[in-house]
Amino acid sequence: MLWSPGATVTDGRHDLGKNGLWLQHGWLGDDGWFERYGKTDRISEFRDNNRLIELSKQLHENHITDVYPHLAPTSPDGHIAPIDDEQAERLLDAFVELRVMPWVGGAWGAQAHPDKAAWREMFAASIRELLEAHPRLAGVHIYIEPCPSGNRDFILLLEKVRAALKPDHVLSVAAYPPPTRWHPFPEVHWDEAYFKEVASHADQMVVMMYDTSLRQPKLYRSLMTRWTQQALLWSGPTEILLGLPAYDDADTDYHDPDTENLQNALAGVHAGLLQYDPPPGNYQGIAIYSEWEMQADEWAYLHQHFLKNETGNLTP
Questions:
Q1: Beta 139-145 vs 170-175: how paired, if at all?
Q2: What's the per-residue H, E or C state across the chain?
Q3: What is the largest CA-CA distance in the chain?
Q4: Are the C-beta atoms of 296 and 1 separated by less than 8 Å?
Q5: What is the pLDDT of residues 6-63, one digit of tens each?
Q6: How far apart are CA 11 and CA 206, in angstroms?
Q7: For a tag site, which of 23, 119, 175, 274 has the least CB within 10 Å?
Q8: At what angle do helices 49-61 and 85-94 cross, to 10 degrees?
Q9: What phi and psi, each to the nearest 5 degrees, are found at residue 110?
Q10: CA distance to 159, 265, 268, per residue, from 218 (Å)
Q11: Could you tell me the sign of the dihedral formed by the alpha carbons of 122, 123, 127, 133, in that order?
Q12: Nearest to 151 by CA among 108, 110, 205
């Protein structure tokens, strides 16, 4: 009962102003996506310039610089999901000074087949075509689920994508967290050696520090502290964003929103970062999953317990 893991930090010291956010599919996806999923009544929400401007303002106010608009799943032959070209340019017009990296990939064995050379080739070529068509895109964010530790095909995929990118493009990876006895499923955890190997092929690792199945907030805070330290230690010079949960999914076995939430996640991250003064050079900030589930009270909590104030000084 006396054990109180985590830490409260309200002076903004861990906010470097370079945080990330996962965005929903409609911001980039073509009209066919809305038709396939019965969402045609929502097309206007994402094609409205005023909404784009409002979202851009919200991102700037919350020190979000890296955004990952969903552009998945990939087709079984390796083509990434189709994009609405006009919408992409509208978004890039509104998101000046932000790094936009489409989130591509899919479920291993269903849409994603990194174990097949032809699929890897088409996937990389499709990414290259997207970035050539929209040169203001900063790079690409790759997420394959699941991806067991030690998998060689995923490394081959990263090498193929790297070869397709220009030198100034960012190769960002949605990374799995270190193993833990609280969640013994090797297909969604990477051991130290594999984490380091993936990091050596990427410019940025965004560690998905959620979906642990934990139901005890103190255990989750403690785990977040350890994962923060391990991720920073294992990634070498590769930039690290610590992925935090802000979503419900209350009807699943892998996520309890009363445990895995912004409050508990930040408490654990702060405790992990307090071991450094200042944070190590590979620490970039946090990434929030997800834009479409963040509520006003969660944005307010972020301001109070993580962000620096608007002048750049530490908040009182």
A1: parallel
A2: CCCCCCCCCCCCCCCCCCEEEEECHHHCECHHHHHHCCCHHHHHHHHCHHHHHHHHHHHHHCCEEEEEEECCCCCCCCCCCCECHHHHHHHHHHCCCCEECCEEEEEECCCECCCCHHHHHHHHHHHHHHHHHCCCCCEEEEEEECCCCCCHHHHHHHHHHHHHCCCCCEEEEEECCCCCCCCCCHHHCCCHHHHHHHHHCCCEEEEECCCCCCCCHHHHHHHHHHHHHHHHHHCCCCEEEEEEECCCCCCCCCCCCCCCCHHHHHHHHHHHHCCCCCCCCCEEEEEEECHHHCCHHHHHHHHHHCCCCCCCCCCC
A3: 57
A4: no
A5: 999 999 999 999 999 999 999 999 999 999 999 999 999 999 999 999 999 999 999 9
A6: 24
A7: 274
A8: 40
A9: -105, -75
A10: 39, 10, 9
A11: positive
A12: 108
| Listed residue (21, 71, 88, 7) closest to 306, CA to CA | 7
CA–CA distance, 33 with 54 (Å, rounded to integer): 23
**Strands ordered across the beta sheet of 239-245:** 99-100, 64-69, 19-23, 283-289, 239-245, 204-208, 170-175, 139-145, 103-107
Predicted TM-score (pTM) of the model is 0.96
- Give, to the nearest 10 degrees, the angle between helix 152-164 and helix 117-133: 30
Q: Which of 264, 257, 292 is nearest to 103 (CA)?
A: 292
19-23 and 239-245: which strand pairing? unpaired
Omega before 56 within 30 of 0, i.e. cis: no
Find tokens 């199945």 and name the residue. 213
